[in-house]
Design goal:
heterodimer, A: 490 residues, mainly alpha, two-stranded antiparallel sheet, 21 helices, B: 499 residues, two-stranded antiparallel ribbon
Chain lengths: 490, 499
């Protein structure tokens, strides 16, 4: 085998490694934790190994088993997919380390967690790498089911109700997506994205498919007003699961929307972009207001996710005219949100473990008592608010720049307003963390790993604001946004 | 990177690194913490001295980091940057000594000094920022680093004050961000340039530029406490005295005023700004703030609140000097950046001493305090006379140049404002001095602590004496080379020199 083939078959590693890990962890229950940690470390290594060859040779395409499209299953990796893989691997490693400490005293949950969690990573990675829309359906389905099962592992009425609702929504979303796939296959005779992109035309079948697939993915991404299922599910799950759901899972369906938009539908559906943007703007405002009035920390963080997802959809209208600037802005937001939001949910887990509750008003001087966790929360908050220097700031800067270049003030004001409201809810928490509570709680010890992991993820979100050109360069490899780069300003 | 590029980074690191180390220190490591604090402050001062020497000999200290394609983060130590740098690094050393004395034995000192160092890091970053984006970065960092200091005491009142502080500063920061991005889309650069970089734009953009000016000044005006954006400042008085010193003299309001200087001179250019018609409204706003702050100060019985409203009033001298498009007024405004810092920090140190030693928080409790704490009150008196504008204290120089500048620019109404302000200053400072020196002291003080033969702890007494002395020297030797006045004159020459 020459090196090119080796590098290419390396593409399957991010899918195979967690899959093998999941199977092993399922079979060898007692060793679930070490197996899980080992698989995730190996996964991160395999993704990092992809980066140099991507920079050197550009996008990679691999026909699994040597069949090739349209018969076989194709994997495809450009800068965008590898960036998402990296995000998943890094945040995944953080969550895994955290989970190892979090579930230490509950062997039953440990054994349930690891296979599901590794399966979820498998599904996500396969989603980022698949090159055909049917294969993507399969990954979406596995992703949804493993996420639902993970939500349920803490048990209890809240978690089960949240998981149940999540299950129905997830199935409904996948179903709508599958119908769209069927329509496209019927009309164009292929499920390969590249071939579809060549053949696709503006006709009723395409529009119907686009509507169905987009609706399904919007539901799964929890875009306003389809977000109703998210807060209960994300808030009731165990801390590492909440982190995974908010940071990674919703990004999977969003990634597909972006892919389809820039490669399949963008050309033929101008007006829909505005609609998506408006829903995004509504999500920013509504999610932030809801976050502000929450009295429980985990719900606040979950509603913040609703708002931050809204930001991602602003790219659809803004990309018309400024193309790659808006897309990179939004993807930058998505990547840094993954780090920051995971950190926030992990901190919430620490506070819950520490005080036995997550009522914001009763935080009781946690700044003194868990300084590292509160520092993590504040640093993550810096990125969520979009203050410099942080990944969130870069994302907002690029979005703002693309809005103002075209003189589109409405979007600019939403972007800025969302940041101010985010500051309000983040610092509401921080403020109460300084003051003494009227009913002080019985403090339980929090393992150091749980604090340090949250801090490291938050610090990484801030660091993304200082190391900018490499991630931006990575996103542009293979230029997934090629169709719309014309007219891109400076 | 050349050696010269390292110096600005080292200036940042000289407080950043000790700050981060201090966060990790156990509460009981008092000596190590003190050493780190002082070592950082002294190192910074030495590095700033190196830069002054270098700049005077034609070296440029600059460092760049590519941020976004086409946008750099850059630090540069020009003359204007040095003015603010010297002020903040000198006062930081003094304030650190004071804070060590003030907080002796109180809880959470590692956290306090950690954020304290971050504040100064942000301030020197603000001073050296070579463009609007870098400026914004450190300006926001300053907000975040001061917040934990404002809420340091952890009471409900402190939390509310912190909330108000953030609401104002984050809101202002958001407007600034909008203005900065807009400016960037119009000009493609954000680099500070003597006499500005926007005057070449097509006249069709002028309405946009006026709006950008308003956005930027609003964002900066929050920290500079221009009315109606000043309300956070008196509320933030719940913080410990060294923090007040930091807010009022070294860091926060100064960062706002300094930013206004940058925007008016090095983004728009004062002549172009005058052409746009934005400087006169700014001058009027500053004048209104001067009068309003003084009027409110008269009615405060709480000493720190009185001083806070005095800050509202005094900082606007800087803005006023900047907004009058005349070289001489510019000198007055710039030099007040330093002068106000020296005088106001003295006053806050003294207020802190009274509270710590005797439990005095109110003006009405100050009868005869001059007999109990003569040295503290000497420092206080010098600073108060400076504020009023009596020669030879530094405040007089400021007013002199502002007045001359106003005449020069044909803005005679400014003289009325200056005169009224001096009268009002006298109206709220002289009664304090009279009570302190000439009234009979009460039989017992509200909460007296004994310090042996001295009137108060040494670390609390020396800082105000030093800064009061500096305020006198800055006034007496204003005509000497390297005095704040001469330096301000040097900057003003650059900003007005025709190309």
């Amino acid at each position: 085998m020459d090196t090119a083939v080796l590098v290419q078959s390396g593409l399957t590693a991010p899918i195979l490694l967690p899959l093998i890990g999941a199977l092993l962890a399922f079979v060898m229950r007692r060793w679930a934790t070490p197996i899980g940690l080992l698989s995730v470390v190996a996964l991160l290594g395999s993704v990092i190994l992809q980066v140099p060859s991507l920079f050197a040779d550009g996008p990679q395409r691999l026909a699994v088993g040597g069949w090739g499209a349209p018969l076989g299953v194709d994997l495809y990796a450009d800068g965008l997919s590898v960036a998402m893989l990296l995000m998943t691997a890094v945040v995944g490693l953080g969550i895994s380390l955290y989970a190892a400490a979090y579930f230490r005293d509950t062997p039953a949950r440990t054994q349930a967690f690891w296979p599901l969690w590794l399966l979820l990573l498998t599904a996500l990675n396969a989603l980022f790498l698949s090159a055909d829309i049917f294969n993507l359906y399969v990954t979406l389905e596995i992703l949804g089911l493993s996420a639902v099962a993970l939500t349920a592992i803490v048990g209890g009425a809240d978690a089960l109700v949240g998981a149940m609702r999540y299950l129905l929504v997830s199935l409904l979303g996948s179903l709508a997506y599958l119908l769209g796939v069927a329509l496209l296959y019927h009309a164009y005779g292929t499920v390969d994205i590249a071939l579809l992109a060549e053949r696709i035309a503006a006709e009723p079948a395409t529009w119907a498919a686009m509507g169905l697939m987009s609706a399904g993915l919007m539901l799964k991404t929890a875009l306003f007003p389809l977000h109703f299922w998210l807060p209960p599910a994300h808030a009731s799950a165990a801390a590492p699961v909440s982190a995974a759901l908010s940071a990674l899972v919703v990004k999977g369906s969003f990634y597909l929307l972006v892919r389809f938009w820039v490669e399949l539908f963008g050309e033929i559906a101008g007006g829909v972009a505005t609609l998506l943007g408006l829903l995004g703007a509504a999500a920013v405002l509504w999610g932030s207001i809801q976050a502000l009035i929450q009295t429980r920390l985990k719900l606040l963080i979950a509603y913040s996710t609703v708002a931050q997802i809204g930001y991602l959809f602003l790219a659809f209208p803004l990309a018309v005219g400024t193309g790659i600037m808006a897309w990179s802005g939004v993807l930058y937001l998505a990547l840094s949100h993954a780090l920051a939001k995971a950190a926030m949910f992990l901190v919430a887990g620490n506070l819950l473990r520490f005080g036995g509750h997550d009522r914001i008003a009763d935080l009781d001087r946690v700044v003194q008592r868990l300084p590292l966790s509160m520092a993590a929360f504040a640093l993550a908050g810096v990125s969520i608010v979009g203050l410099p220097p942080s990944g969130g700031f870069i994302g907002k800067w690029l979005l703002l720049q693309s809005a103002l270049t075209e003189g589109r003030w409405g979007w600019a004001i939403v972007i800025v307003l969302g940041g101010v409201m985010a500051a309000a809810y983040v610092f509401k928490v921080v403020g109460h963390a300084f003051t003494e509570s009227e009913n002080p709680h019985q403090a339980q010890p929090v393992p150091a790993t749980m604090e340090w992991v949250a801090f490291a993820l938050a610090a990484a979100a801030v660091l993304m604001g200082l190391i900018v050109s490499q991630p931006l360069g990575l996103l542009e490899i293979g230029n997934p946004f090629g169709i719309q780069t014309e007219g891109a300003a400076p | 990177m050349t050696l010269e590029a390292w110096v600005p980074l080292l200036v940042l690191c000289s407080s950043l690194v000790p700050g981060l180390l201090i966060f990790g220190l156990d509460e009981s490591r008092i000596r190590l913490r003190t050493t780190l604090n002082l070592a950082g402050a002294v190192t910074k001062l030495a590095l700033v001295a190196v830069m002054i020497w270098g700049v005077a000999h034609g070296h440029t200290f600059e460092v760049r980091l590519t941020f976004l394609p086409g946008l750099d983060l850059a630090l540069r130590a020009g003359p204007l940057a040095l003015l603010f740098l010297v002020l903040s690094s000198l006062l930081w050393l003094v304030t650190t000594i004071y804070a060590i004395g003030y907080l002796e034995g109180s809880p959470h000192r590692s956290r306090f000094f950690g954020f304290f160092s971050l504040c100064v890091t942000a301030t020197v970053g603000v001073a050296m920022a070579a463009d609007m984006l870098t400026f914004l970065l450190f300006y926001e960092m300053l907000t975040l680093a001061t917040y934990p200091l404002v809420v340091h005491r952890g009471t409900e009142v402190a939390r509310r004050a912190g909330q108000v502080y953030l609401a104002y500063t984050i809101g202002g920061g958001a407007l600034m961000l909008l203005g900065i991005v807009w400016l960037y889309t119009l000009t493609g650069t954000l680099e500070f340039t003597p006499r500005g970089f926007v005057s070449e734009l097509d006249p069709s953009h002028h309405p946009a530029l006026i709006l950008i000016f308003i956005f930027l000044i609003t964002g900066l005006g929050v920290k500079a406490a221009l009315i109606p954006l000043h309300a956070w400042l008196p509320m933030a008085m719940v913080a410990p005295a060294p923090v007040s010193a930091l807010l009022h003299a070294v860091a926060v309001v100064k960062a706002g005023a300094f930013g206004i200087v940058r925007v008016v001179y090095e983004v728009f250019g004062v002549e172009f700004a005058a052409l746009l018609g934005v400087t006169l409204p700014l001058a009027i706003l500053a004048a209104a703030t001067i009068i309003y702050g003084s009027l409110r100060a008269i009615y405060q019985d709480d000493l720190k609140r009185r001083l806070a409203f005095s800050t509202v009033s005094q900082v606007s001298y800087i803005v006023l000097g900047v907004a009058i498009a005349s070289p001489i007024a510019t000198v007055g405004g710039l030099v007040h950046l330093v002068h106000q810092g020296l005088m106001k920090i003295t006053l806050f140190f003294c207020a802190g001493n009274l509270a710590e030693t005797l439990g005095i928080h109110k003006v009405s409790e100050m009868n005869g305090v001059g007999r109990r704490m003569p040295w503290t009150m000497v420092a206080f008196t010098i600073a108060a006379f400076g504020m009023i504008g009596a020669p030879p204290v530094a405040g007089f120089i400021t007013k002199w140049y502002l007045g001359l500048g106003a005449l020069d620019a044909g803005q005679h109404w400014v003289l009325v404002v200056l005169a009224a302000s001096s009268l009002l200053n006298a109206a709220y400072f002289l009664p304090i001095l009279h009570a302190a020196w000439f009234r009979e002291p009460p039989a017992t003080w509200p909460e007296e602590r004994e310090f042996g033969r001295r009137e108060t702890a040494r670390a609390l007494l020396w800082p105000p004496l030093i800064t009061a002395l500096a305020a006198v020297l800055a006034g007496l030797f204003a005509a000497m080379p390297f005095s704040p006045l001469e330096w301000a004159r040097f900057i003003a020459e650059q900003e007005f020199r025709r190309p």
